[in-house]
Fold this protein.
Amino acid sequence: MSGTIHRLALVPRDGFFVKDGRGWQTSARTSVVDWPWPTTIRGALTTVSGKIAERQKGSRFGPKEWKDHQSKIAVGALVALRRTLGTEKWSRMWPVPADALWLEEKDKALRLDPTKPQAGTLGRAAPATAPAGYAEAREALWVPQIDSKAKPLSRPRWFDDATLAAWLSGDSVKAQPEEQQQPRMQKRLQAHVGIRAETLTGDDGILYAHEVVETLERLFRDGKGDGGKVAEWAIGVEVEWPVPSRPDIARLGSDGRIAWIEEADNDLFRMPAGIQTAFPSKGLRLVVVTPACFTGGWLPDGFAPVKVGKGDKDEWVFLGRLAPSHGASVDVCKTDLILRAAFVPRPMHISGWDMVAKAGASDGATKTDGKSEEKLGAPRPTSRLVAPGAVYFFERADGGGFTAGDAKALWLAALGSRTKEGFGRIVPGIWNAKDTE
């Protein structure tokens, strides 16, 4: 596929409203997500680039042309951006890894390093289609051990760039005092109402409420407003599309809310130097930063249960290779890896709406002359994906370590399927040798 690669910042000007996969409910609050899905971002970019292509062609696209155009849109790395309003430099924000835990009266976040399980679990039975040894290999996955009896605190939603780099490099992360505000966006409730013109009565069909995520954030220090300063949030995206120009605005999510489009720096998706210098490492931890689509649900593609060892010391493990897509697929380390642990939150259920799909025959509209008119638009199938923040821990099967070159190859690489839609992006970190003994 040939196209022009752009690194962009989508800056919502009036917040954003992005529905989740559940249907509309009359006179009820509509469910929304706190950050746009990759498919939502790709849809906005498909629309705005398609409008440019229409102007170049001199005529409007039909359903087939829109489908052909969308097939040429490839979304690469995605990252949340934040900056003080009035400045030009963006700072990156990342989902907090699932191996970080905050406890009462602790000045540092607890790192949940996995160790061999001390006892069995009452986990779910293996799926009927699972290969031999699946249940045994899943039962053998390492688990975190928590020695502290302190109560856990709520987790922040985001790490800034420096904090994530420290965490992936094995350094400690300070727990922010409760009176200080963690970086986060606020939400406000918006109601929609309508009146039927012919009867001057309320229209229940458009009576609903939903939350709008505000992308302007008041900055706080020591629990107090910091001189009225405001931070704004945006979406950093790398996109390849078949149009040379960059539009100025896009419409993001429901309500067609406007987002300015800015050209971003070429180093927007660079790897922090501190992470690469932390290698080599005996083990590897991978953090999922965009929803990941794996054939095996939580299990990364390319891994399957295998019995290793000899005699009484044999065990079932998930063995395979990481093959991230960076244009060409390259196996990291050129050797087999053992998946030692997987800290995976509840799955995300992602769907969407295909604007040019043909609706069912029963959904066809009727013209005033009595002839039927084809109606476009249909829901997409719902996908069950690994949520951002999931962490996977690996060892090399041959006992070797991971190099700085491996880390560079894995930075914002894409694993799994649907990677051209922005899914499956990961970042690497070290897993100290003492944790794998």
About this structure: Residues 4-120+131-357+366-436 form one domain. The CA atoms of residues 133 and 188 lie 49 Å apart. The chain has one domain: 4-120+131-357+366-436.
